[in-house]
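#struct-queue
[09:14] JT: dropping the first one here, sequence first, then the structure tokens:
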Amino acid sequence: MSVSIKSKKAVSTIYSPSHKIETIRKSDSQLAARIAPDATREPGAFRLSYLVEGEGVTASMFAYPDPKSGGGYFLLLAGLPAKPADHDKTVKREVTLVIDRSGSMNGEKIEQAREAALQVIAGLEDGEAFNIIFYNEAVESFANAPVVKNDETTKAAREYIKAMKARGGTNIHDSLLEALRPKPIKDMLPIILFLTDGLPTVGQTSEKAIRETALKGNRFERRIFTFGVGTDVNTPLLEKIAFETRATSTFVMPKEDVEVKVSQVFKRLAGPVLSSPALSAIDKNGKPAHGRILDVLPVKLPDLFDGDQLVLLGRYVGDEPVTFAMTGNFLGKNKSFKFTFKPERATAKNAFVPRLWASRKIGDLVDAIRTLGSESGAIPGISPPATAVNDPRLKELIDEVVRLSTEFGILTEYTAFLAREGTDLSKKDLVFNEARNNFIDRAWNCRSGIASVNQEENGKFQKGQAYLNSSNRMFDAQLNEVTISNVQQVNDRAFYKRGNQWVDSRVIDEARTIKPTRVITFGSEAYSTLVERLAADGRNGCVALKGDIVMVVDGETILVTFPQATTNE
């Protein structure tokens, strides 16, 4: 499926909550989009939205009602001006390259890292700034602090990069400390591109200590984009550092080109348009509207560069109009943009909103469990102490992951067993114990290698998920793509295959039994009435499943049967 959009006004951004799409901008007011090749088999209706350009940042909101919470869920879509920003007006960048030159980098990897560094320096605009830090057991810097790019500093940087040689150990802690130390140049966006191909072997090697250095010691709020070369890296460490500093992590698999991966990330960082954005709810007087929005994800909004869009998810309280204020450095000036939306337009047809929110929430919870593993003193291949396994924080996190996974049909590699035919979801203790064992074995104990890389790739997708993943597509421990068919996400409901029936996740609630109070047969008058009732709320897809269906409608558990057709001979 492909779509062409022509508008009298410039188009800010285009978005699909239902499918991954590829977009081509032909002009300010004309775009083309199509479902990405790897998403063509995703089920469900194809939904598409676009924003026309306003003053600066443009935004719209999708809302889904949740009466039991006194509000609902929202998705805020924000876009930037359609025309690429003039580099003279965008926020200038200060880029610090931190490159591992330990002995394991010797050969092709160090050559690719050298070429990547040369490309980054070449890609900076004159007047922007840079520094270069090489590290093994020692840490050496091109300059004591970032320098402004000009002909002289560029020439010196090229010579410095070409002289780099690989030998020695890996001192990750001190190299980060040095990169974070200098005060950034005024009015520049401070960025670190941090590259390593190994685990810390010299100096401070504790994952927790290194993470705290990068996060708590980052007083100038540098964005730390991390690159793990190969699989012998501490993947949760690199992902956590990047995610918490408004950046991203990238893992370069064996036989992949380091230069290509670094260049792809750096290319996306061209033309900062809105940096350090923050969102809040305000009242009609412009004062904070406390308690109107909560559970906003991501907690830290990312910087927005040319061509970026922001997909923000959260929950709202009340039914009065809500006004959002988005502040940040917009093209070099501190600005605030206001958007007012009416929750009365919330509809169950926007079922993608709570599901996307739940997926991001699960990603954050899994990330917290991974982090807790590093603090428990877990040693790969060795069972953690009982005090760690029984940590009440772990129980709370796992309980919430299982609850959200069950309710929304969103599975992870740790909770995929929920779809298993023999799993009794009503037996909470057994479900919790199996989930805990999976988290201990994988999230805690597996922190490097390909079986750790897959966890970060799955986690990154969930924490930033902007479109549905109805087939629960994920990577397994060998980085093979897998899907799960025994759970179906339909509209705003989740159904589990049990025998020849599809069972609504809400039926599994302790307050209900699987025994229905009413049976409705396909083709009957009652069936037609049911379909009309479901369609009114955008839930008619629930009866499209193949097989009998046990579902909850208006608080009642019903069984919908589809008798097999017979032929008289």
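[09:21] JT: and here's the second one, same format:
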Amino acid sequence: MPLAVEFDTAPQLVQGLRARYGGTGKALLGYKDKATKTWTDLSLDTVFDRVDALTAFLHARGIRPGDRVAILSENRPEWAITDLATQMLGAVTVALYATVPAHQVAYICRDSGAKALIVSTGLQLRKANDAHPECPDLELVISMTEPKRVSESLPVVTWNDALAEGTPYRAEHASVLDAIADAVTPDDLSALIYTSGTTGNPKGVQMTHQTLCTNAKAAHERLPVYESDIHLSFLPLSHAFERTAGYTVPLSAGAQIVYAESVDAIAKNLPEVRPTLMVSVPRLFERVYTAIQKQVQSGNAVRRGVFAWAVDTGKAVADRQREGKAPGALLNAQYALAQKLVFSTLHEKLGGRVRFAVSGGAALPQQIGEFFEAAGVRLVEGYGLSETSPVLSANPLEAPRFGTVGHVFPGVTVAIRDLHSGQILGQVSGADYPTTLTTGAGEILARGETIMPGYWNRPDESEAVFDDDGWFKTGDVGRFEDGYLRITDRLKHMIVSRGGKNIYPGPIEEQLAGSPFVEQLMVIGEGRAYLTALVVPDMETVRAEAKARSLTASSEAELLADATVLSIYEDLFKTYSRQAASHEKVRDFRFAAEPFTVENELLTPTLKLKRRAIEAANADVINEMYQDVP
């Protein structure tokens, strides 16, 4: 779709938006005011005036092109203002996940050499206070809240004082600051995104203005985003996915970004904001799907039958539309009834105006994509890595193939390399469509304008992820099917059994985790005689089932030990294993000691399993599942 403005750098984006919408009163950002409990719009003029003030303040305090400015904050307007101010100075944004502990704040600020750190809440300020002694380059901390209980040595300034100081400085030094913004080039470094990493310390992925802007413009070629759209932002802006899909893309369309109160408040915020676009990880859609399934299964036979009929009707409509055919009068009438009787509740939960939603960060189960499509909510699944800025491919809105990650984006080429021979099996660039290329499975490679130049201060690791021909090695396994890219799993997640079988756990985990009784699941089996699994049960579903079956228990542990409850999980694994290859059958399971969370460091901030940490935390029950194996 046409961009609201042409841009090759972040300063050009700001300048273009100001030229087009300045003085019109157009809403650019939005948030819920905690004092009044009302949703509040921020106009483009207000936002950019604050960007000007913060840019000037940072310059007055010594921030120059190439310096690193770190942000430790939840999604909120100040995050965008800080990032844009940093970009206008030709400096580099270093975004930290709001969930990281103080020792990781210290590591990232020290590793990046950040000169300034902007924090949101009192909790984040305390992390900055603890980290400061270990960060020799950190000269300035800006707090969005009034500083309390911090050391006298912490060089902290409040957000409001920074803007107040920056405003007159901007008036006096406007020509200097404008010249700095004009001098920023596409090859200049724009951001460092620290990979959350399932092992070891995170690495800073270098993102230039070219890699970020090219990827955002490629998204506009594939997805219809308009200046009238409203995006509800809740995925962390410290993640490359949200930074591009939920930030740069809406901004460059002239759309409005509204920040959710928190991840936990999404269900409440959706009908309040009524967004037209959504960007999420699959887990949100899985939860909505599971909740609907629970409601259906708790109903009588008639209710279940109506639901099944509605889904079949929706799928029939989607199939006709995918073929470019009109559904016909009868099917249209049936679909209208299905919407009224069944799907209207789903649309209400999402606010009633979502045109499409983008899913990324993990695999979207095929049945969930097909269900939402049947309900009239198109999910666009994409794929990429921080190192690719990040989107490499996405399903076409008009012809999605669920279970795949769609077509290669403009600006990049993706290839499949055989794992054994090392030969390229096939490659597709964004300009090659339409294509029906089909290949065997192999490692996914990429090169093009959106690929990172390397990791920050990691020359050896940077060199290791590129081959001699300049291909970036994603570490993912996949294949092309009629031009659509399908992901199998991560190479490093591959399990090699004691018998020498190569097993990818991802598809197994995805299938088993589709059960409403499973909250999380991880397959075990490296160097073992057979596969087993750790299960985090969905206790809400378990308790509801126990009530329906008149089971009683004095504790959660006692309930999970009940023979009837155990049989539910045993049947789940038996059902799966009946149709699985011998080496992919899951022979035993145990309940994990605790849920996998970011806080207990069993999940990365992007919600990926930290497999080694999970195995270590559950070593006793894992060994128990193999105790009879010689």
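[09:30] RK: nice, looked through the second one.
[09:31] RK: The chain has a mean pLDDT of 93.
[09:31] JT: good to know. The chain is about 40% helix and 20% strand.
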